[in-house]
Specification:
Elements lengths: L1 H13 L5 H12 L4 H8 L5 H35 L20 H15 L3 E2 L5 E3 H4 L19 E3 L4 E3 L4 H10 L4 E10 L11 E11 L4 H16 L5 E8 L2 E10 L16 E10 L1 H6 L8 E8 H9 L6 H4 L2 H4 L7
Parallel strand pairs: 1-5
Antiparallel strand pairs: 2-4, 3-4, 5-6, 6-10, 7-8, 8-9, 9-10
Helix pairs in contact: 1-4, 2-4, 5-10
The structure holds phenylalanine.
The site of phenylalanine has 12 residues, from strand 8, strand 9 and strand 10.
């Protein structure tokens, strides 16, 4: 019997299967009720007593070996099965991943924010749909005054007047009504004017408003702040010049030009051969505006400025047509990233 057992061990060791049913056949051959092992166990009765221990151990070992073999054959066949799945072609070029990028107007907006945050300005936004008070009246636009026509307003409702804000100066009012000085903030946002769309004008555009209200704020503070901004934005050689202007909410008011960064002031077609480019409106906050917001104009003074983001982007990137910023043509946008 021992010889038979050793023969069978050899057979188990050498067994190989190429299909799952062969494995099953093998399992049944040894382990089924009429299989080899139960046959051997019934013969076990006739084994002489002194050999029982050894033969018994061999039979148990054989059972384990069969089970082991079945397990390993099954897993070999399973993985072989998987390997018949189509193998990916590793030489194929990958699908290109096209990363998105910031829109040039967002890039410039973020640049403006980071320049002013360096000198202590914080950032806030407010609503685009405004009432007459915040867009005009509190900003010292007299009723029926032609200054209201400076900005062609999109009205949503008449009486009470509800409109799309024509400038971010409305956020000056929203802020001063809630916050007491010192206030040192910038307000980026979208504004709307009923203008014919052209290379130089659009009915939707973006502004960044600045507001600084505290004791003893002077025009010199305004000028230094704007000079700092101009040099950070357009380069350290940039010069500024302030021309007198008019806004109902600032007194005195000015418009600021920067030296043309394209020709360096020599004169070119971008600056129309003047050497200067207009970039923003500014001035000292009119005392009436402070009072309209409950701020004592005897105690506090302030300055404000407002700039168009498109205009700055136009100058910075030498884009000749404002409409390009709104068309989102990828051939245009990709020039601001280099990524695709
Ligand atoms: N709101 C003005 C405009 O849209 C710009 C401005 C802002 C002027 C603040 C003075 C002070 O033209």
């Amino acid at each position: 019997m021992r010889e038979r057992i050793h023969e069978l061990f050899k057979e188990i060791r050498n067994f190989n299967a190429s299909t799952p049913s062969e494995v099953e056949e093998f399992r049944l051959k040894y382990l089924s009720r009429k299989g080899i092992l139960s046959e051997l166990f019934s013969e076990f009765r006739n084994v002489p007593n002194e050999q029982k221990k050894e033969v018994g151990a061999l039979l148990n070992e054989m059972k384990d070996k069969v089970l082991e073999k079945v397990e390993s054959m099954r897993s070999i066949l399973e993985s072989a099965d998987r390997s018949t799945e189509p193998v990916p072609d590793l030489t194929r070029p990958v699908d290109q991943i096209i990363p998105g990028s910031r829109h040039p107007l967002s890039i410039v907006r973020n640049d403006i924010i980071s320049i002013f945050s360096k000198i202590g300005f914080s950032v806030a936004e407010n609503r685009e749909i405004e009432d007459d008070w915040h867009n005009f009246t509190a900003l010292n636009f007299p009723e029926e005054h032609p200054a209201r026509d400076m900005q062609d307003t999109f009205f949503i409702n008449k009486d009470p007047d509800i409109l799309l804000r024509t400038h971010t100066s409305s956020v000056q009012i929203r802020t001063m009504e809630k916050t007491k000085p010192p206030i040192r903030m910038i307000f980026p946002g979208r504004v709307f004017r009923n203008e014919v769309i052209s290379a130089r004008a659009h009915c939707i555009f973006h502004q960044v408003e600045g507001l600084y209200v505290d004791k003893n704020v002077s025009f010199a503070d305004l000028k230094q702040t704007l000079l700092f901004f101009a040099r950070e934005m357009f380069g350290e050689k940039t010069q500024i010049r302030l021309r007198p202007s008019y806004f109902p909410f600032t007194e005195p008011s000015g418009e600021m030009d920067v030296s043309c960064n394209i020709c360096g002031g020599e004169g070119c077609n971008i600056c129309k051969y003047t050497g200067w480019l207009e970039i923003l409106g500014c001035g000292m906050v009119d005392p009436n505006v402070l009072e309209n917001c409950g701020i004592d104009s005897e105690e506090y003074t302030g300055f404000a400025f407002g700039m168009g983001i498109e205009r700055i982007a136009l100058l910075k990137y030498q884009v000749r047509d404002l409409r390009l910023f709104f068309e989102n043509d990828l051939r245009f946008l990709k020039q601001f990233t280099g990524a695709f």
